[in-house]
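A quick aside before the break. I want you to see a complete sequence-to-structure record at least once, exactly as it would be stored in a machine-readable document. Don't worry about memorizing anything.
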Amino acid sequence: MSAIFKNYARYPLTFVKGEGCRLTDDKGEIYFDFGSGISVVNLGHSNKAVTEAITKQAGTLIHTSNLYSIPVQERVADKLSRRSFGGDVFFCNSGMEANEAALKLARIYGNTKYEGKRLRVITLENSFHGRSFITLSATGQDKIKKGFEPVADFFTHVPANDFASFKSEAEKGDVVAFMLELVQGEGGLSMIDADYLEECADYCKANGILLIFDEIQTAFCRTGKFFAYEHYNIEPDIMTLAKGIANGVPMGAMLAKKEIAEYLSAGTHGTTFGGNFLACAAAEAVFDIMDADGFIERVESKAAYMREALINIFNGTDVTVVGRGMMLGIQVPGMQKEFISKSMENRLLVVPAGNDVVRLYAPLNISQDDLDTGLEKISKTASDLGLGG
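That is the input. The structure line, written in tokens, reads:
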């Protein structure tokens, strides 16, 4: 029996090789990966440019710690800052750590600027921000907190797209930040309305409340923009990143406007591994591919094609296509587990989410032939279950 903790309900599959959207298991069977490691391997498995960058860096220098300057880290930070809203960047190892850093920044900002009178953070119901003690407290799903109560009590969860509820909490005067996902990935690909976000952003700006965007699952072109906030033309004060940042090498990042970032001065926060040579080499290769001319346009084209195909597959059924860009899913009422299981039988890997949603996260650079093959597998799975096709 394995000595691994039993905290994962794993599927009975073991993979030994990957290339593009294809994974080969230990029996030699090939699966099409429409999960991308939960929106992590967005450039496909064993991407040549990323692999070459990792290999070159591993043969030179992997790690020195953040006691010393790391040139590749500085390059990646500059590129992210330039591509976003011009803030400073803190590197870590995961999305959970990025959100933890963002919440620490919000706390020290509130304690310093407002003499401790602002400490509460508003987040949304149905949200997911991580599984550390503070980030599970920030998460707006009771199932994530079960068994770990009492959780941190300075979070208030309000329903999404309900400005009156947000304003009612914000007017109490002790709120330092509003933290939200622009698409609730784990929550079932629920979308944030543009009018609601504009109202909230305007209120935050007028009342000195920090606006934090958790873009851990939405960033790096997954929604059809480099960052999802670009769909709204609203800039956050703080943004968190991870998942697709380094195509599978563990890495996360927090960006903050310079006038806010300065509150995390020397000694207030840190990490041993965050932003080391190896992770940043992978991240730089990913960034350069995604920032190249035409990449986002190709993602948008594939996303429109995939959405239309899914709508046609499930036409006339109660299955709904949800999401944005290539952050797509299907809501299959009462049949999520059956759809995932049947998909695996058809050699297609997909990812569950809340609200009976099945996530379909194909690699962003998937070939047309592989995309069509994956859609054929979805159609067959739907037909096998009597859900269209």
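Two observations worth writing down. The chain has a mean pLDDT of 97. The chain is about 35% helix and 20% strand. We'll return to this after the break.
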